[in-house]
Amino acid sequence: MRKLFERLPLQFRVLYRQFLLRVVDLEALSIEADIPRFLGQFAGVLIMFSVIQALVLLIHPIMTPAETLSMLWHSEQLLIATIMLVTGLIAVVAWDNIFPDKRDVMVLGPLPVRPRVILLAKVAASGAVLALAVFSLNIAVGIVLPLIQGGLLRFVPNALAYWFTMTAASAFIYGSVLALQGFGALLLPRKMFLRVSGVLQFGSFIFFLGAYFLLPYLATPAALTAAEDQKLLGWSPSFWFFAMFNQLNGTLPTSLNWVAERAWIGLGVVGITAAAALLLCYLRTMKKTVEEPDLVPGVRGLHWMPRFGSLLQSAVVVFSIRSLARSKHHRVAYAFYLAIVIAIGFSALKHLLAIPAPRPPTTDYLIATFMMMSVAVIGLRSIFSLPISLRANWVLRTTQISPPERYISATRWALILLGFFPVWLCAALMSLCFRPISLSAAHLILLTLVGLILADLSLIGVSKIPFACSYLPGKTNIQYVFWFFILALSSIAIYLGRYEQRTLHDRARYLELIGILVALDLGVWAFNRVRAKSATLSFEELPVEVITTLGLNVVRPHTQMVATEEVHLS
Asked: Would you say residue 564 lies in a domain?
């Protein structure tokens, strides 16, 4: 493989290596700016998921043929939906990376490098990441499932059908995102596309998560042939590729051949559309990207924004909102945490809809809202240190006329309005499904206190304005934060949700819990307020100065022993 790679043109090899390191945002997602190490840990998480799914398939109890078929179909639909979700999230995180940007045009434009070489190198780099995801997510289950389905005699054709279907499903989703971006860039003016791009990114993000958590599974022949499910089969790509897989291995009922045909048609249409969008963008829009600004310029005319407290607080909050809305750098970083929040919300909503009404607040709902609040507040706080641009740094530095505590208070308001309030509003809308209303209101009061405590705890030791401080690359360590959320915050949320479920029906214990949370929040808030009065706003994050010595003044034990013996002899 290495010899084959070395036979490729030198320009392609050099660009491929560079673009492979830029598929993921180097500063936002890497471990100390180490992309290969990050990709290795990303593959490790997917391999663990594949091993767990394979073990579930291996240890299933003895079933009838009908039950075995239902179990296999459910697993196939789950795995296809999972690979489509992972591919969609990769496409959202790597938004615009396959298209030419200003750096490519300014650096590679004067060089004798043809646009098609740049295009092929970017496609190959993105394809390598997708191949890594497909291989890691199916490395174990891609062997176990074909083996259970057809035995040793049918293992090879079933395995080939499985891996081809997973690759096709991944290519379909990624090609759809490329086609959406490419034709958006071609049909819309450059400034308008820069504004719409963020909306498309978040919309695609929510669409992939919603489809994964809300779509049902049809795991029986009766469900697949039911008249009320035909629209779902016709419009859901995950069922298209499920039908394709069973068509390839020869187990698809003839009445569902039309569903498999949609998979083949959709794959061909998406492939042609994505290729055309890429070619046209590299031929027609590369010159436009030279004038692309770091931030989208504002539109002239009458602008109105609501007041968020004082003028200073309003300025910091509006600046934070526009930073998240306009900057791809921050949207990508926050997308990781937003994925967890939306996934938890959709999962809780799916379980909620399965419970007949009227229903009291469930423990799953309480735990889900606490976890959503934790991820939203702490996740938003973690990207506050990422600078929006150097202009934001020096403009806010030269216009600092208020005491530091007012800026820190404005930062707290930004964290509450952008991290705490959206989750609280979602929890309030979900609480309308429960009865009595008084129990839902009691939970919202507790959720409010927990959110305020998290916001105040996140600001301990913070003396920065959001998105206006220089940043040392590789310090976010999102993968470590992910496992922190899974192990620590989820455990705390589970304990708090179960404890609250017991206190909701006991007024004395509920008031005691309220008092503890209020005292804790007031204590942390007062600590931050006192500390902010003597704080100095930080605009430059500098590496720690370490003095490195050669160790020449260290006396070795052997030398010291010889010197001691000489003293005794003398």
From this structure: no
CA distance 246 to 238: 13
Residues 178 and 61 grouped into a single domain: yes
User: Do both 286 and 323 map to the same domain?
Assistant: no
- 286 and 312 within one domain: no
Domain enclosing residue 383, as ranges: 308-545
Residue found under tokens 């902010």: 532
Q: How many other C-beta atoms lie within 10 A of the C-beta of residue 438?
A: 9
Range of weakest confidence among 185-199, 245-259, 394-408, 549-563: 549-563
Residue 68: inside a domain: yes
Which residues, in sequence order, are CB contacts of 97 under 8 Å at separation 6+?
Answer: 19, 22, 23, 122, 126
Number of structural domains in the chain: 2
Nearest to 409 by CA among 449, 462, 453: 462
Q: What is the DSSP letter of 23?
A: S
Rg, C-alpha atoms of the chain: 28
How many other C-beta atoms can be found within 10 angstroms of the C-beta atom of residue 2? 5
Helices (H) and strands (E) in the chain, counts: 25, 0
| Alpha carbon distance 528, 533 (integer Å) | 9
pLDDT at position 567 is: 41
Higher pLDDT, 472 or 65: 65
Q: Are 378 and 458 in contact, with CB atoms under 8 Å apart?
A: yes
Task: Give the number of other CB atoms < 10 A from CB of residue 367.
Answer: 21
Residue position matching structure tokens 């594949």 = 50
- Give residue 260's identity as a one-letter amino acid code: A
- What is the reported pLDDT for 549? 60
Is 381 in a helix, a strand, or coil? helix
Q: Give the residue, 110 or 525, on which the prediction is more confident.
A: 525
Token pair in block for residue 346: 């959709």
Indicate whether 31 and 122 sit together in one domain: yes
Q: Which of 229, 261, 290 is the last residue of a domain?
A: 290
Q: Are residues 167 and 270 in the same domain?
A: yes
* Range 353-358, long-range pairs (CB < 8 A, 24+ positions): 357/433, 357/435, 358/434, 358/435
Same domain? 331 vs 264: no
Report the alpha-carbon distance of residue 504 to residue 431 in Å, rounded.
14
Check residue 323 and report its DSSP letter. H
For residue range 189-246, what is the model confidence (pLDDT) as tens digits?
777 777 787 778 778 877 888 788 878 888 888 888 888 888 888 889 999 999 999 9
Q: Are 431 and 361 in contact (CB under 8 A)?
A: yes
31: helix, strand or coil: strand
Does 272 share its domain with 335? Answer: no
The helix-helix angle for 437-458 and 363-382 (nearest 10°) equals: 20
* Same domain, yes or no: 218 and 362: no
Span between the terminal Cα atoms of the chain, in Å: 71
